[in-house]
Amino acid sequence: MSPVRKRSVTIRGHRTSFSLEQPFLEDLRAIAETRGVALAALIAEIDAARPRSDNLSSALRVFVLEQAKLPRTP
Asked: Which residues contact 50 (CB under 8 A, 6 or more apart)?
């Protein structure tokens, strides 16, 4: 099992931190690359869409899981 690691990112001009296991971070990076956006831009998008009652780390994990459930196109 991958340990949870705290990371920092600048989104919309301010520093924020989140804690994720390495596999979630790798998937986020892959999603950002597929979309042609920077990782920070993807995190900012997820942050803007999440309910303020949800923490960023949880929102990132849920986003990755939701993406994994999407049908794959050949």
From this structure: 56, 59
The alpha carbon dihedral of 60, 13, 15, 8 has a sign of positive
Structurally, the chain folds into a number of domains equal to: 1
Radius of gyration from C-alpha coordinates of the chain = 12
* Cβ contact 31:64 at 8 Å: yes
> pLDDT tens across 28-69, in order?
999 999 999 999 999 999 999 999 999 999 999 999 999 999
- pLDDT over threshold 90, residue 73: no
Please report whether residue 74 resides in a domain.
no
Do 39 and 8 form a contact (C-beta atoms < 8 A)?
Answer: no
